[in-house]
Structure formats: structure tokens, C-alpha cells
From TrEMBL:
Domain spans labelled Isochorismatase-like: 30-201
Database matches in Gene3D superfamilies: Isochorismatase-like
CDD domains in the record: cysteine_hydrolases (cd00431)
Protein name: Isochorismatase-like domain-containing protein
Length: 245
């Protein structure tokens, strides 16, 4: 049920969304952010949902559908997987997605991506996939991927809308604005294939140190803040102008 607070928020900062067309004459790249068991599969770990969640299951369905279309067209796809060394915690969060555990692997509906030739998989140990793509020598796997594939439009999906998706979008747009990501022109966040987690205030107040994180509210804020940086927010992605995906 959508609370009165969320209705108020959506009235105060309405979010205009648009259709985005994947045209044949430009290269669109798809970026999947952390659609992994540790964040999306019920009971899979400290940061996994405790019970099934409509926003998260809808995000997985839309992600799988879109990823399949990108793969059929052999368009470039990049997959970020949150993966932490056991001795390097990520404050303020409890241990999660330890390297080698199934928490840090793609959800079952997306596991097939590991075998696709057009897919680049990047394990990262921080929120921001752009920063997580930096190698020890200073090169950046994501920047190289954009340039090598001559990507002009990036479609970003995944979790969490207001954390790892937003951080990645902010860094990418800053880098684009500085001229580091040519020929990239557009960064699109596809809202129906994004999700975040739910910790209502009444739950957070009973857990020491926990921050309230009402799902609908934070999802909306994440999209809104991405738009503030210049991202397009899409509520549908169309292939070839005619085929609604
Ligand atoms: Zn993490």
C-alpha cells in the first residue's frame, strides 16, 4: 500500500518519465547493477529481502527480459557484482556478498548471462561501479568498455536505485561531462528494472544504528536524484520504435 507520505512526496517532486527507443543505427549498452542473490533472493544473506517483495521481483522480471533482448541483438552488456573480501567490511552495512559465496552471484533468472559472448562481468568491492572498475594501474574497465563498443546510450538497471545505481549514474555522468566517455551521450535509468530495499521507520527504530529506508520513498528519490544529474528516467524501453519491450 502506498503511504500518504509517498503520495505527498510524489506530489512535491513529481518525476516525469519517458519512452526510450533502442534504434538500430546507434549502439546502446546495458549495465546491470548488483542483481545478485545477496540483495534480491529471499533469505540469501544479511542484506537480502526477508520476504518476497513486489518491487524486487518486478525488477528481476524486467531485467531478465531486457537483458535477453540486448543479447539477441548482440549489444554490449556490462554486469556489476558486489563482491567483498571477508576482511574488508563495507560500513555501515553488515558483512554481505563475500567473494566466492552465492550471495555475490547473479540471481537464478540472470545466471545465463555468464555464458553470453557480449557480456562483460565486473566484480566490485564498493558501492559505485565506476569506481569499482578502476584497475591498479589507473585504467578503468567500464570506460574502456564504453569506448571499445562506441556506446552512445547507456541503459542502467538494478539495485539499489538510491545507492549503487545512483552512485554509478552520478560518476558516469560526471566523467561524460568531462569528456572521458566519448561517444557516450545519454544515460538512461529504466525505472521498472530498478528496485531498492524496505526498512520502514517502525522497524528501523528497533534496530540499533539502523537507518529508516522506506522502499517506495527511497526508490522515487533515487530516480529523482539521477534525473537531477541529467539522466533520463524511462518507464519503458522500446526496440526499433515498433516493438514494445
Ligand atoms: Zn557491498
Amino acid at each position: 500500500m502506498v503511504s500518504q507520505t509517498v503520495e505527498l512526496l510524489k506530489n512535491e517532486i513529481p518525476l516525469e518519465q519517458e519512452s526510450v527507443v533502442v534504434a538500430e543505427d546507434t549502439v546502446h549498452g546495458l549495465v546491470l547493477v548488483d542483481i545478485i542473490n545477496g540483495f534480491c533472493t529471499v533469505g540469501a544473506g544479511n542484506l537480502a529481502p526477508r520476504e518476497s517483495n513486489r518491487q524486487i521481483s518486478g525488477m528481476i522480471d524486467e531485467s531478465a527480459r531486457l537483458a535477453r533482448l540486448f543479447c539477441e541483438k548482440k549489444l554490449p552488456v556490462m554486469v556489476f557484482l558486489d563482491s567483498h573480501h571477508p576482511n574488508k567490511p563495507e560500513d555501515p552495512y553488515p558483512p554481505h556478498c563475500i567473494i566466492g559465496s552465492d550471495e555475490s552471484n547473479l540471481v537464478p533468472a540472470l545466471r545465463w548471462l555468464e555464458n553470453e559472448g557480449n557480456v562483460t562481468i565486473r566484480r566490485k568491492d564498493c558501492f559505485d561501479g565506476f569506481v569499482g572498475s578502476i584497475e591498479e594501474d589507473g585504467s578503468n574497465v567500464f570506460v574502456d568498455w564504453v569506448k571499445k563498443n562506441k556506446i552512445t546510450t547507456l541503459v542502467v538497471i538494478g539495485v539499489c536505485t538510491d545507492i549503487c545505481v545512483l552512485d554509478f549514474v552520478c560518476s558516469t555522468i560526471s566523467a561524460k561531462n568531462r569528456g572521458f566517455l566519448e561517444p557516450l551521450e545519454n544515460v538512461v535509468v529504466y525505472s521498472r528494472a530498478c528496485a531498492t530495499f524496505d526498512v520502514p521507520l517502525e522497524v528501523a527504530t528497533n534496530i540499533k544504528g539502523a537507518l529508516a529506508h522506506p522502499q517506495e520513498f527511497m526508490h522515487h528519490m533515487g530516480l529523482y536524484m539521477a534525473k537531477e544529474r541529467g539522466a533520463k528516467i524511462a518507464n519503458e524501453v522500446l526496440f526499433d520504435a515498433a516493438k514494445n519491450v
